[in-house]
Amino acid sequence: MLTQTLDQQYLAHTYNRFPLEIVGGKGSLLRGADGREYIDLGSGIGVNIFGMDDDEWRNAVTAQLGRFQHVSNLYYSEPAAKLAQMLCERTGLKRVFFSNSGAESNECAIKAARKWAAEHKGPEYCSIITLRGSFHGRTLGTLAATGQDVFHRDYQPLPGGFLYAQPGECEALERLAAEHPCAAILFEAVQGEGGVRPIGQEFASCLQEVCRKHDLLLMADEVQLGNGRSGSLYGYMNYGLQPDVVSTAKGIGGGLPLGVTMFGERVADVFHPGDHGTTFGGNPVCCAGAVNILSRIDDRLLEGVRERSDYLRRTLQAAPGIRSVTGMGLMLGLEIDIPAREFAERALREGVLVTTAKQKIRLLPALNIPMELLKTAAQALVHCAAE
């Protein structure tokens, strides 16, 4: 209880924590200070994509720690260069900027879009269209990009220059692009914080077409869904899209802070020395871990993601008390009959850790969670729903 007491006394009250202190773990089993083991279906909100204390990742990280832990971006660093090469070769994109978080990767995308549009279309072409229900980060800029009023309420005035379209409404999106001087559209293939809602193939195709017609950049926010969680390397790939900018974070670092913004051909050279920068972005220890993570996201792993996703859908959507299962790959949302927090507390008592997204339960297990553990956890969730 000492940790909880110190936390409540000295840390800002920004998190509604569950009454559990984690003291260790291996893979998808975590140990609490209460002496119990818990099956982890949250993976640090999509971060520990190979689970806790993964041997290969830890070895890559500690090997780099034995060389040098940080170097300024005034000098070259092999882990960052190698990771950038791997990302470009796997996506077909051309250049990479490294930062520290998803919000920063989206801030970089926003800056790139506005700079590109000012140079190619004129300085008035600064508006960026995002989607209602989206979530792009907690800086002032990415809060403004987020299409949810609840996140805007306490932080006015927010930066301007953002327009919001309703997912699925192609005609309304087309009108926004036609009536306003816009630079880009920023979207999530599955809205995570917005309720684990896929945008669907028809609307995804509409996004690409509107960008083509109005000379806009298409920008994919892959912070939570990316890096194998969707069953493809990145979620937009499931819809056959070709974004100009892709942002990601969370799972790419495997447990260390790393943000990534990737640029396609049209924006590959939008930034010049001094236009953007960071102190810690591209940190060699974080990048060494990410090189290991990315090298292991192969066809076999992605097939396993899809297999686990299919099992969870079959098992959970038929369970009493679960109304629907939404999402993609191993980013799934459960619409349930009781408040999400109450369900999560029930699951905790059953020894399963889950997260919430609005009124849904959100499942974000490690991509390699053993099937037997996944089956045990799924049966526990079925029991929780039926209580």
Describe this structure in words.
This protein has 387 residues and is an alpha/beta fold. 38% of the residues lie in helices and 19% in strands. The protein has two domains: 2-53 and 299-386, Aspartate Aminotransferase, domain 1 (Alpha-Beta Complex); 57-296, Type I PLP-dependent aspartate aminotransferase-like (Major domain) (Aspartate Aminotransferase, domain 2, 3-Layer(aba) Sandwich), CATH 3.40.640.10. The chain has 13 helices and 17 strands. Strands 4-12-11-10-7-5-6 form a seven-stranded mixed beta sheet, sandwiched between helices. Helix 3 (55-65) runs antiparallel to helix 10, helix 4 (78-91) packs parallel to helix 10 and helix 11 packs parallel to helix 13 (371-386). The longest helix is centred in the first third of the chain and has 19 residues, at 102-120. The protein starts with a helix and ends with a helix. The model has no long low-confidence stretch (mean pLDDT 97).
The percent range for strand residues is 15-25%
Shape: globular
CATH architecture of the largest domain: 3-Layer(aba) Sandwich
State the helix count. 13
Q: How would you characterize the largest beta sheet?
A: 7 strands, mixed
Pfam families: Aminotran_3
Keywords: Aminotransferase, Pyridoxal phosphate, Transferase
Family: Belongs to the class-III pyridoxal-phosphate-dependent aminotransferase family.
Cofactor: pyridoxal 5'-phosphate
